Amino acid sequence: MFKKILVANRGEIALRIIRACKELGVPTVAVYSTADRDSLHVFFADESVCIGPPLASDSYLKPARLIAAAEISGADAIHPGYGFLAESADFAEMCAMNGIIFIGPKPQTISLMGDKAQAKRTMQTAKVPTVPGSDGVIKDAAEALQLAQTIGYPVIVKASAGGGGRGMRIVRGAEQMESNFEMACAEAESAFGSGEVYIEKYLENPRHIEIQVMGLKDGRVLAFGERDCSIQRRHQKLIEESPSPAVTPKLRKKFIEAAVEGARSVEYLYAGTMEFLLDQNGDFYFMEMNTRIQVEHPVTEMVFGIDLVKMQIQAAAGEAIELTDREMQPRGHSIECRINAEDPEKNFLPSPGKITELHIPGGPGVRIDSHIYSGYTIPPNYDSLIAKVITHGRDRSEAIVRMRRALDEMVVEGVETTIPFHKKVLQHPDFIAGNVNTGFLTQFLK
Ligand code: ADP
Description:
This protein is an alpha+beta fold. It contains 15 helices and 22 strands. It has three domains: 5-103, 3-Layer(aba) Sandwich (Rossmann fold), CATH 3.40.50.20; 132-201, Dna Ligase, domain 1 (2-Layer Sandwich), CATH 3.30.1490.20; 207-444, 2-Layer Sandwich (D-amino Acid Aminotransferase, Chain A, domain 1), CATH 3.30.470. Strand 12 and strand 13 (284-290) form a beta hairpin. Adenosine-5'-diphosphate (ADP) binds next to strand 8, strand 12 and strand 13.
């Protein structure tokens, strides 16, 4: 096992990783910007190092500062969490050059999958179905126009370096192509520093289904079922669940086969997620792979009774991962609501500030992953996720009822949150019936 792990992140995920390390008996080093001086992850870690000012580009996104922090604290491994440098092949490479284990896949795998156009091509070679579209990057609107004619409208122009639901434009007809194409390129350039885009068929109201994988050093790839992340606002997930109400045992088997085959074809290591779109005919298509632990990983942990963060650390440390057949079978149903400090009444405007009062729910089947506390000030500099409320029940309806109860118990004062919004979604007949797709929230919010 590692001697000491540096957690190159903040917020709930930093805390989540520190908790896993504690259970493994591994000392931890937290890093923090000056805006996060009073964060829980700083208090919970064994040591902490300040890595710069509030701006992420001057702190959490500065590879050299993180490597230096690992060196002065004597950490032999770095866990990147999600976001920030978690999917930076350069950072993973720098860790290796400095003799530090990066807890994630190889740098080559990160860059291969980080280029979404290239990732799709790689999956096609592995015979994993992909969304019909361009064979890699498109150079101009004229080429896009030509291709769209063969694919058929609507199409979606997507940033090859994209992430977080940004840099995507739907094009419903030829007359909209030129302006949308230019906008997508400009958005991609400013958000990701690369204006490269590709196009694919825009599927109407699909479900977002993803498979959790864990690649091991001995070449095995384990799969822990699916998560349904169809409840999205502007392509960003807000509610996730496992299993998906739309996935039958037969379909699950096909999903898992495709995900495992795809991951194996790139010799994938440790925790990763293969993301797919499932259309209304029951056909599914690979969309992208995330080469890290994801925000929504707890719903998988709840139904499988496993700890994915501990498992990825153990696997990276070269420890044997052995699971019984029973441990590979999901039990019951789990749902996660992402609680953001945002005002749903004001178009989800971020609402940073001081939490004056806090009550965290509890009771059977309720799990809270959060870094907030009463008196904590949410800084305006980072994303607005303040807590993940996760429930587990023997079936979907029990998980929903528990979620409603948990959200009723939860009190966060001083800032606006998305709790009231979640409560409304949880009452919606279509949500209750499991009859949702990625277009659900657009309709719901109208
Ligand atoms: P990101 O990396 O930014 O999260 P993804 O490629 O994972 O981007 O897509 C995010 C979401 O955008 C999907 O879950 C889906 O709702 C929507 N989306 C992306 N591609 C398509 C498509 N071809 N057809 C329909 N919806 C899509």
